Amino acid sequence: MQKIRSRKEVFNFSAGPAVLPTSVLEKVQAEILSYGGSGMSVMELSHRSSWFIEIIESAEVLLRELMAIPDNYKVLFLQGGASLQFAMVPLNIAPNKKIGFIDTGVWSAKAIEEAQKLGGYDVRVLATGKESNFSKLPQIGEIPTDLDYLHITTNNTIEGTCFFDVPKTDVTLVADMSSNILANAYDVRDFGVIYAGAQKNLGPAGVCVVIIREDLLELNTNPLPTMLDFKIQAKNKSLYNTPPTFAIYVMKLVFEWSKQVGGVAAIEKNNRTKAGILYDYLDASTLFSSPVDKSCRSLTNIPFITGDKTIDSDFIKQATAAGFENLTGHRLVGGMRASLYNAFPIEGVYALVDFMKKFAEARGEK
Ligand SMILES: *Cc1c(COP(=O)(O)O)cnc(C)c1O
After folding, report:
1. What is the CA radius of gyration of the chain?
2. pLDDT tens readout for residues 189-218
3. What percent of the chain has pLDDT over 70?
4. Where are the beta strands (DSSP E) in 37-94?
5. What is the per-residue pLDDT across 125-141, written as a single tens digit (0 to 9) for each?
6. Residue 331: per-residue pLDDT
7. Nearest CA among 84, 331, 271, 102 for reference residue 196
8. Mean pLDDT of 136-152
């Protein structure tokens, strides 16, 4: 039977849904029965009430501030996760049905598949990291200028690679930023569309953030199902139907926390420190190593291996027993993975490295 633990006894390395700031959860707890003196839980408030309108509007204001989102971009809070955006983006902003992709692993492959499923789209994979087993980002050659857009996955959650610099092109750039939004600083002006499921760096599962340049809203002239139509969603300020109110409320609190800890620049700096501690150990260890090329190592998702499946599973078992939760690598790649999202505390990285050192030393390794 699993031991009963308190939050203090656990470090949660989950890739998503992932760790949230404890202070945010405490605030949720304090307000859960009566939001803002309303006598009602935030979950019980109408999405058209002034209480909720204030929540969703401040969430937008805070995100605009955190990412320096220019005024000519809309911010949408939608449902269906990042996975729905794989289809929604091509439906809305590809009038010529020509899309380019950089294939950097499992999530970009899913985005490619979804675009293909729509039928009638010229889906071009301009570069793939397949040859290196996605352990590094591929070289990107000439980008055709007749594309409606070029899609990249800024951070590859499963493979542990990251675009620190985005491809330079005049073609509209679309980014799946699910696992490093607010974790790495990007210039929103480099993108036409940014989307991200909330459950990694932004809040609970159930809401997906979409940031879209206004002129792109005019590209589609075909009728689309209402919920899949960016223009309708934008016109209705993400309130066409009932939005995931609780998830948006918690996300707003995470935005407040993100601002309070210094904003994206400070968060990225902290993420570099946290990731650096683990990478430094992985590079020095004789037992553990990182399979990812040094040029593009993610700050938020860090896969590592021993090279021996039995030792890997032994390590995961012992680590879990010691309170290091969710270190199992993705089922497609095996090994281990430590996700160090924004809310993951640095103490947890020190503790993990300490634990890994002891595990290695017990085997005559370092
Ligand atoms: C988690 C993840 C997704 C899927 O997000 P959902 O919200 O579950 O659809 C897509 N892309 C990337 C890069 C992810 O990390």
Report:
1. 21
2. 999 999 999 999 999 999 999 999 999 999
3. 99
4. 73-78
5. 999 999 999 999 999 99
6. 87
7. 84
8. 97
Render 140-164 in DSSP notation, one character per residue.
--PPPTT-SEEEEESEETTTTEE-S
Mean pLDDT of 297-325: 97
Kindly state the DSSP code that residue 68 receives in the 8-state scheme: T
- 336 beta partners: 304, 328
**Contact of 183 with 155, CB cutoff 8 Å:** yes
Ligand 1 atom index nearest CA of 205: 7
Identify the pLDDT of residue 1.
58
CB burial of residue 165 (10 Å; 0-12, 13-18, 19+): exposed
Residue nearest to atom 1 of ligand 1 (CA): 178
| The dihedral formed by the CA atoms of 53, 59, 64 and 66, expressed in degrees to the nearest 10 | 160
Is the pLDDT at 332 greater than 90? The verdict is no
Strand partners, 211: 75, 194
**Probe residue for ligand 1, chosen from 107, 110, 113, 182 as the CB with the greatest number of ligand atoms within 8 Å:** 107
Residue 3: pLDDT band with limits 50, 70, 90: confident
Distance 118 CA to ligand 1 centre (A): 19
In terms of DSSP bridges, do strands 208-213 and 324-325 run parallel, antiparallel, or are they unpaired? Answer: unpaired
Q: How many angstroms from the chain centroid is the CA of residue 191?
A: 16
CB 85 within 8 A of CB 58: no
DSSP 297: B
| Ligand 1 binding pocket, CB closer than 6 Å | 16, 81-83, 107, 153, 157, 176, 178-179, 197, 208
Distance 355 CA to ligand 1 centre (A): 30
Backbone torsions φ then ψ of 358, nearest 5 degrees: -65, -40
Do 194 and 213 meet the contact criterion of CB atoms below 8 Å apart? no
Q: For ligand 1, pick from 84, 88, 114, 179 the residue to mutate: most ligand atoms within 8 Å of CB.
A: 179
Cα 76 from Cα 241, distance rounded (Å): 13
Residue nearest to atom 7 of ligand 1 (CA): 81
Residue 15 CB partners (closer than 8 Å, separation 6+)? 157, 158, 179, 200, 301, 326, 330, 337, 339
